[in-house]
Amino acid sequence: MLLTRHQTPISGDSVISFPKLECWNAKTKVATVAADVDKRRVLCRIPLDLLRDRFGASTEEPMRTVTAHRLEIQAAARKLIENEDFEEDGSVLIGDRDI
Are 6 and 89 a contacting pair, CB within 8 Å? Predict the structure, then answer.
């Protein structure tokens, strides 16, 4: 599979919003929260290990933790988007240093 670098240029007046769209990937053990950046969708990913370490997430119901800590996760995602810290696929990956 060939991946190309996705660019989502961010300007000082960019609008970043977070619709109530979130999902869990049981195979990769990653939660995803959607962000809209100037009418473009950016997927904001946070791994189970970080959810467990920072917020005490359970492996059985990790999305409860995402819901309970949505504002903190969104703030971390917003910083990554504003800093244009995108992964190769155009998503942002929230890590230890971000929360």
Answer: yes
pLDDT digits 0-9 by tens, 62-88? 999 999 999 999 999 999 999 999 999
Q: How far is CA 74 from CA 1, 4, 29, 39, 80, in A?
A: 30, 26, 19, 17, 10
Q: Using CA atoms, how far apart are residues 10 and 31, in angstroms rounded to an integer?
A: 24
- Model-level pTM? 0.86
- Across 1-99, the runs of DSSP E, i.e. the strands, are 16-17, 22-25, 30-37, 40-47, 92-93
In a domain, 57, yes or no: yes
Q: Tell me, what CATH number does 54's domain have?
A: 3.30.160.140
